[in-house]
Amino acid sequence: MTEVLTVIGVGGMGKAIARRLGAGKTVLLADYNEETLTSVTESMSADGHHVESCSVDVSSPESVHRLAEYAASLGSVAQVAHTAGLSPAQASAEAILAVDLLGTALVLDEFGEIIAPGGAGVVIASMAGHMFPPLAAEQERALAHNPPGELLKLDFVSRITEPTMAYPIAKQANHIRVRAASAHWGRRGARINSISPGIISTPMSQQELASPVGDGMRAMIAMSGTGRIGTPDDIAAATAFLLGPEATFITGADLLVDGGVIAAIKAGSPTS
Predict the structure, then answer these.
(1) Is 171 known to be catalytic?
(2) Fewer CB under 10 Å: which end of the chain, C or N?
(3) Pick the catalytic residue: 15, 25, 32, 171?
(4) What is the pTM of this model?
(5) pLDDT above 80 (res 143)
(6) Would you tell me the crossing angle of helices 103-114 and 61-74 to the nearest 10 degrees?
(7) What is the pLDDT of residues 45-104, one digit of tens each?
(8) Residue 167 annotated in active site
């Protein structure tokens, strides 16, 4: 049976992942932006990849369900990379929570039902999830186990009105939801992990760098151990590892791919 690689969100990181892992597979590309979806589909097809495409709104349970059904109809869904998301410079708090928090929960649930035995998935979260203080145990439990449709109604979630607050909470929720989903995926003999990218040179990050928080982002890059901005290929390489045969004992984990930003923040300045 044909192996299917499903990539949800085909911007900078999604496109790099699809190109790195797509050879010899049926590649199902999904995105909300029809123009981006068409462009990447046509480009990869012209380069010899077997590509199918599907429009998706990850905040819609019906849309995500249709995508999962379509993926399963194409063959054995061996690999899933979920990269779709919105950033504070792009959207309201409401939209960020709908796409980044609810959308991820829906994808984890739906693809957890059709992922092939031996298959694996990766959710692209963010280092922002590591920068926000840990949530209370009760809040974490709710984010881990409540049905997707109840997540945005949680009291502490529904009160969030600032995009700069919605984003890190959504990304921390991604870590929590992936940990919880690992048991469900495991019952199918499959694995699920998250990656927390740092500042990666994508159209989304360029918008953030041009926003009022840009100077802070540049300062974080300067203090990091690598001292550089990341590339989509850096994330594609980490995704290839987590989705591949060398990571078969890794599930329910988050991999920081941030060039050392979080390490530098947590270590603080030397005292002497």
Answers:
(1) yes
(2) C
(3) 171
(4) 0.94
(5) yes
(6) 30
(7) 999 999 999 999 999 999 999 999 999 999 999 999 999 999 998 899 999 999 999 999
(8) yes
Enumerate the β-bridge partners of residue 31: 55
**Distance from the Cα of residue 131 to its chain's centroid:** 17
Residue found under tokens 């369900």 = 65
Pairwise CA distance, residues 101 & 5, whole Å: 23
Both structure tokens of 271:
């005292």
Q: What is the pLDDT of residues 170-200, one digit of tens each?
A: 999 999 999 999 999 999 999 999 999 999 9
Position 270 scores a pLDDT of: 62
- If DSSP codes are grouped into helix, strand and coil, which group holds residue 229? coil
Q: Considering 15, 25, 32, 167, which one is annotated as catalytic?
A: 167
Q: Collapsing DSSP states into helix, strand and coil, what is residue 79? A: strand
Q: For tokens 């990447």, name the residue.
A: 40
Determine contact, residues 26/48, Cβ cutoff 8 Å.
no
The rounded distance, in Å, linking the Cα atoms of 177 and 79 is: 18
Eight-state DSSP code of residue 102: I
Walk me through the domains of the chain, giving residue ranges and CATH numbers: 3-255 (3.40.50.720)
